[in-house]
Amino acid sequence: MSVFNAPEMESEEFELWQAYLEKQTGLWLPESRKPFLIRALSGYMLSKGISNYRELYFKLNAGAVSVGDWASLVDSLTVNETCFYREKHSLGLVSSYCRNMAIERFQAAPDKPQHLQLWSVGCSTGEEVYTLAIEMDKLNLGLHDSVGKEVYFGVTGIDISYPSLAVAREGVYAARQLDFVPMVTKNLYFNRLADGYFQIRDNIRQRCCFIQSNILEMKAKLKQNYDVIYCQNVLIYFKQDRKQSVIDELVERLKPGGLLVLGHGEITGTNNDLLTKVDNKHCLAYLRKDK
Ligand SMILES: C[S@@+](CC[C@H](N)C(=O)[O-])C[C@H]1O[C@@H](n2cnc3c(N)ncnc32)[C@H](O)[C@@H]1O
Questions:
Q1: If you count Cβ atoms within 10 Å of the first and of the last residue's Cβ in the chain, which end, N or C, has fewer?
Q2: Which atom, in ligand 1's list, is nearest to the CA of 82?
Q3: Which residues, 6 or more positions from 123, have their beta carbon under 8 angstroms from its beta carbon?
Q4: Hey, how many other C-beta atoms are within 10 angstroms of the C-beta on 1?
Q5: Of 20, 94, 124, which is best to mutate to test ligand 1, by the most ligand atoms within 8 angstroms of its C-beta?
Q6: Which residues are in the CheR-type methyltransferase domain (predicted)?
Q7: Averages of pLDDT over each 10 residues, the chain, 291 residues
Q8: In which element (H, E) is residue 141 found?
């Protein structure tokens, strides 16, 4: 079989690459994704005069491929699809959890400023991070009206893909990325640019930060623990044992009582003893038990 006249990929070569990518990034490519792998690798091979997949594999292992080239290869192998307000039920759960948490903390310590930190794992081009920040800002408007106080919040996004993060940091999006954004929200939180694009407003952007990191190596990059960890449409590409070990790492970064929200297809269940499943038929979420 040939994809755009790319060299044939033998089964053995596919298996080498399948294992290599899994080890480096967690991504597990099933046989059905072989054409996708061929497409991603062959363009690079052509530009570098590399004639087969095995040669490229050995070059990578010998460190003969630059960090920038490896980053582009990884980017071409990841699925970066996302949009604003993608998972409504999960977002609703985060909002009500944060509201309850804020009120509980205001009651326990009325004179103390309260902070909530959220983390989007595999944030792609930033829509998920900004959606969470917008929802937190709306929550603050409600808290201001009802209890006369607001929480300080921050949303951190991490992703392995440098190009996706560059888009995220800029915060400029084509209109179709905003298809699910209610009109009132669009008017309140985005500036309409001349060419039909929309830019997220600075008051939201300033609450968000983006970090390049591989989920498999995130320990070194993250210095704090989070009230909410939001991980959607990322682990679906990982093998079951890898999913479990990533979730165990995420739990390490979750504050006691914190909320872990996973996508529905993310994992069938987890055996982490620190987690209690949230009773919600629309989304898969866990609370970290207090120590
Ligand atoms: C399909 S997107 C999901 C985006 C967003 N969470 C959503 O649900 O709309 C998956 C993202 O996970 C990122 N990703 C995949 N493997 C990763 C890894 N090992 N470390 C960090 N990010 C990774 C990809 O680069 C991609 O941007």
A1: C
A2: 9
A3: 82, 129, 157, 158, 159, 164, 165, 168, 210
A4: 8
A5: 124
A6: 2-266
A7: 74 95 94 92 89 93 89 90 95 97 95 96 98 98 95 97 96 95 97 94 98 89 90 93 93 96 83 93 91 59
A8: helix 127-147
